[in-house]
Amino acid sequence: MRHGQADGTEPVRTPGRGVVDEPAGTRGRTSIADVVVVKVAGMAAREIPGVHDMGGGLSRTLGAVRDRVPGGRPNVGRGVKAEVGERQAAIDVELVVEYGVPVPDVARDVRENVIGAVERITGLEVVEVNVAVTDVRLPGDEDASEAAGTRMT
Description:
The chain has helices at residues 34-46, 57-68, 103-122, 144-152, and strands at 12-14, 18-20, 51-54, 80-84, 88-98, 125-137. The protein is α+β, with helices and mostly antiparallel strands. 35% of the residues lie in helices and 25% in strands. The strands form 2 sheets. Strands 3, 4, 5 and 6 form a 4-stranded mixed sheet that branches. A two-stranded antiparallel ribbon has the order 1-2.
């Protein structure tokens, strides 16, 4: 008489490998590319009220030009850098905030939303999210997309 495992399942016999006691979902390795974390973090950061744009001045200007090219897609990862290991990630985010919003509050909200989204979607532990506020959008300021549009026409 053959007895099953403690959880009531039978061990799996595989040709040439004997008995495998692990469930199918845990056999193998999952790797997550940096670009995945960058895109998830970029989307999460943009969801926060008070975030006007992301990235430094040059990257915003180049992004605005790229966005206007027919068939071009917006770069959701602009202003985000990520270092991804097997189980952990560290993320840097550059923001442009709206004038009048408390910068520490926006930074905290971005940090919390990025950590929540990346950990939920990727399963990675986010060890840190560094937020750099690179600019503030003042009322009446022309932003990079508007400036790029007037130069191109």
